[in-house]
Amino acid sequence: MKRGIAFAACLWVSISILMVVQAHSTSRFCEFDVYTTEDGLGSGMVERIVIAPDGRKWFSCEGALTSFDEVIWRQDARFAQSRSPNGLGLDADGTVWIAAWNEVYLLPQGSDDFCEFDVPDCVSFGDMYSELRFDASNRMWIATMGGGPDSYHVGDDPLPGSYPPGWRIYGIPSDANPLLVGDFAFDSSGGVWCATNAGLFRGSVMQPMWDDMSRDRQYSLIGYSAQGLGSPRVVGVSRDGRVWTKGMVNNSIDPNNPYLCVSEDDGESWSWLEVPSIPDGRIPSLDSIVTVDLPFANGLWLGVRYTDPSGLSWEGSGAFWLDLDNDEWTWVEGWAATIFYDIAVDEITGDVWFTTLDAGVGVLRGWLEQAPSIDLVMTTDQARYSLGDAMSLSIDVEADQKSSAVDIYVALELTSGQVIFYPSLDASWSPFWPSITIPAGTEAHDYELFSLTLPDLPAGTYRWYAACTYAGTTEFASNIASCEWEFE
Fold first, then answer.
1. Please, are residues 410 and 447 in contact by the beta-carbon 8 Å criterion?
2. Nearest to residue 391, comparing CAs of 8, 3, 1?
């Protein structure tokens, strides 16, 4: 394909292709697929979800443990009402762990047979387990109802001398009765954050402190306070080390208070983060925070309920996606007025799963799907030109195994550093080649974009740019290719 124009050097603009394209960002939208007991879910109340390496989803339902492999729903009869699963975790080997009442079970990869894991009596004190999570060191954390968290390192214990062997038993300095641990999060310095009905607490397994109170528990977690934190119950730590928690006081509905608190210095100071309003002035309340740290996604999912305009009753629910790389918020309307308990991302498909208080589970298919990768290389037919010379501009295109509908942009940086878009030759950015599909696995080399005859130009260095965006958006689908040339 060849396109040519007479080049006009008098068109100078003050905006670059990088600034223009990156200043406009868009988000893709997917509808919820919803699954209930009619589909095979064990209960409409689903607290936790883990996604195993084989893609199988595990749900801790009220009075049932349910799994789903995208074809068949299964129930495990051992986890009935008297042994209802409360916590789910996935260790570094892909083993699924279940905390059910005051017992712990594990299901190794490739097995359908759960094994009971022996937890010493002095760890649980007979309390019911409320949460089970794994940190980056493959250390299992269990929250006991009324007793705080305990940790067990799966494998060799890195801190010898503990009792019982391999365990660390932590106390939370609080008079709350009962003390309820609602969520765990882990930071890069070996710290564990516990969100409870008594406040937010942090401990470090590498710097334990003796605590002779709280039922002879071995180590104490330090309490962190922040104005308005109240009873946070949810906490997350993002890739950049920031700690995120709920800012609503005692779960009250108060439109005058922001509801997301963030700390950038391990809890020494806190700040409010203003959350975009939900359409029609509806009043939100935060129920869950889940951080996402993947090569193709860095952000937070926030499960939210909202009231009717009067603020007197709950009207619906939904979720915010906060893209931390671009500081962008996206609102997703839910399918029922309910509480979003847990949120999980399928790293293979990019699906995002939501569990709820009484409305089953929902999934956004492909929301965080890894973007197709298109690699561009741009070349001119020679490095130096003069008046009347013909210039040919070509590109090499290599695409991964995903077909992509894209817009191709081409721009020119002038000797002054200003940029114009081609072929419009002005600041109005528009595609050089709109809505073209690049098939999966494409490899095209020395493809001529266009040729032109050069008019008289100021002497100096010029630079061409080319980039692909998803069709109809300004979200990059490729690198930004460039090449320099001289006019004499």
1. no
2. 3
Handedness of CA 136, 219, 238, 60 (dihedral sign): positive
Q: Is the pLDDT of residue 374 over 50?
A: yes
Q: Does domain 32-364 have CATH number 3.40.190.10?
A: no
Decide the pairing of beta strands 85-90 and 73-76: unpaired
Which pTM does this prediction carry? 0.68
- Dump pLDDT digits (tens) for 264-307: 877 777 777 777 777 666 767 788 899 998 766 889 999 888 87
Residue 315's nearest CA partner among 332, 331, 338 is: 338
Task: Give the residue extent of every domain in the chain.
Answer: 17-24+372-487, 32-364
> Tens of pLDDT along 92-140?
888 999 988 788 999 887 777 888 888 887 776 667 888 899 988 888 8
**How would you write the chain as a 3-class SS string?**
CCCCCCCCCCCCCCCCHHHHHHCCCCCCCCCEEEECCCCCCCCCCEEEEEECCCCCEEEEECCEEEEECCCCEEEECCCCHHHCEEEEEECCCCCEEEEECCEEEEECCCCCCCEEECCCHHHHCCCCEEEEEECCCCEEEEEECCCEEEEEECCCCCCCCCCCCCEEEEECCCCCCCCCEEEEEECCCCEEEEEECCEEEEEECCCCCECCCCCCCCEECEEECCCCCCCCCCEEECCCCCEEEECCHHHCCCCCCCCEEEECCCCCCCEECCCCCEHHHECEEEEEEEEEEECCEEEEEEEEEEECCCCCCEEEEEEEEEECCCCEEEEEECCCCCCEEEEEECCCCCCEEEEECCCCEEEECCCCCCCCCEEEEEEECCCEECCCCEEEEEEEEEECCCCEEEEEEEEEECCCCCEEEECCCCCCCCCCEEEEEECCCCEEEEEEEEEEECCCCCCEEEEEEEEEEECCCCCECECCEEEEEEEC
CATH of domain 17-24+372-487: 2.60.40.3880
| First-residue to last-residue Cα distance in the chain | 28
Spatial distance between the Cα atoms of 41 and 64, rounded to a whole number of angstroms: 9
Given pLDDT bands bounded at 50, 70 and 90, which one contains residue 176?
A: low
Hey, do 17-24+372-487 and 32-364 end up sharing a CATH topology, with the first three levels equal? Answer: no
CA-to-CA distance for 297 and 294, rounded, in angstroms? 5
Indicate if the pLDDT at residue 308 is higher than 70.
yes
